[in-house]
Amino acid sequence: MGDLDLARMLEWMPLAGHLGLRPVAGSPEEVRLRLDHADHLTTAEGVLHGGTLMALADSAGAALAVFNLPDGAVTTTIESKTNFLRAVRGGHVEAVSRPLHVGRTVIVVQTDLLDAEGRRVAQTTQTQAVLMPRR
User: What is the phi/psi pair of residue 105, to 5°?
Assistant: First the structure.
């Protein structure tokens, strides 16, 4: 796939475009996506909604998995766990996804969510299934 291409990502993940996710960098070793704080993505007192942060992490993790898939395979998230560490009330959040395990049937990804000052606001670990086409 080369450098992460937003148009291509939006083809297989329309939610990313709806949320306003922007690709920063992409490779089999690391994917970075950015999300700007916006009022329509918040909960009480302008804090980015936890579901918004989880969608950012899941999107980055899925993109990383795509970089690591064998030819013809697709992926889907089968497990995800997020620890929230601090609130985000402005600026942006950058997701940094890296593989913990790339196997034949699953890819395990760790995603750190960092605020505009580079502080970790959440950490997600997810498992992506590697789905081969039926013969």
Answer: -115, -20
Distance, in Å, from the CA atom of 116 to the CA atom of 64, rounded to the nearest integer, reads 22
Give the whole-angstrom CA distance, residue 49 versus residue 88: 9
User: Collapsing DSSP states into helix, strand and coil, what is residue 110?
Assistant: strand
With helix as H, strand as E and coil as C, how does 19-86 read? HCCEEEEECCCCEEEEEECCHHHECHHHCECHHHHHHHHHHHHHHHHHHCCCCCCEEEEEEEEEEECC
Question: Could you tell me the pLDDT band of residue 2, with boundaries at 50, 70 and 90?
Answer: very low
The string of pLDDT tens digits covering residues 25-46 is 989 999 999 999 999 999 999 9
DSSP structure class, residue 128:
E
pTM value is: 0.93
Distances (CA, A) of 5 to 1, 23, 33, 46, 75: 8, 7, 11, 30, 18
**Domain spans of the chain, in order of start:** 6-131
Kindly state the tokens that stand for 42: 């918040």
- The CATH number of 6-131, from 3.40.50.620, 3.50.50.60, 3.10.129.10, 3.60.10.10, is 3.10.129.10
